[in-house]
Sequence to fold (230 residues):
Amino acid sequence: DVKVTQSSRYLVKRTGEKVFLECVQDMDHENMFWYRQDPGLGLRLIYFSYDVKMKEKGDIPEGYSVSREKKERFSLILESASTNQTSMYLCASSLSGGASMSYNEQFFGPGTRLTVL
Amino acid sequence: GNSVTQMEGPVTLSEEAFLTINCTYTATGYPSLFWYVQYPGEGLQLLLKATKADDKGSNKGFEATYRKETTSFHLEKGSVQVSDSAVYFCALGSPYNNNDMRFGAGTRLTVKP
Fold:
């Protein structure tokens, strides 16, 4: 079974703090993703990475950065947390397309619920 | 661009009732379509998928058929159980870029005994 783990289930931080959210997958997937989930808005992509040290901005990258130094690990960084970053953060991974370009199932971690006070 | 619209919730049903959650999409080409489920306190899990027109995805009594003519992928279950209470997300995967997945807003289902 694919397993995607996230470092914390719940996190409380103060405005202005630097926050690290860690994600690890054990299935040798090339692609990794960070989403935030807010009521009524579904999932919105923050950043994704298709290879080590490679990253691309998603729909809402402002206020976030990412790091991928190893294939299995993808970190989301909030340089200076703000209250509007209070949300559920979901990490996901998937295989690269290759010959199966249409088959792009993503596997999700359990989520980190971040509260910024 | 690609997008997904699913029916707003919340949806409340009695046990053994019939469930339909509507999902329609806008996309170029032939996307893959997915239903994910999120149980309380957990991440998303793939429920079912379909990768081409007229395919029917099914799992745990849930079904959805990829309808190209109506650009729809409605989720159905004939008899829901209390354990089906969760949030359901319709999603679309681009046929040109497998990093591009679009999710609906989610529909919360509560099943009462």
Observations:
- Chain A has a mean pLDDT of 91.
- The longest strand of chain A covers residues 42-51.
- The CA atoms of residues 1 and 52 of chain A lie 23 Å apart.
- Chain A touches chain B through 29 residues (CB under 8 Å).
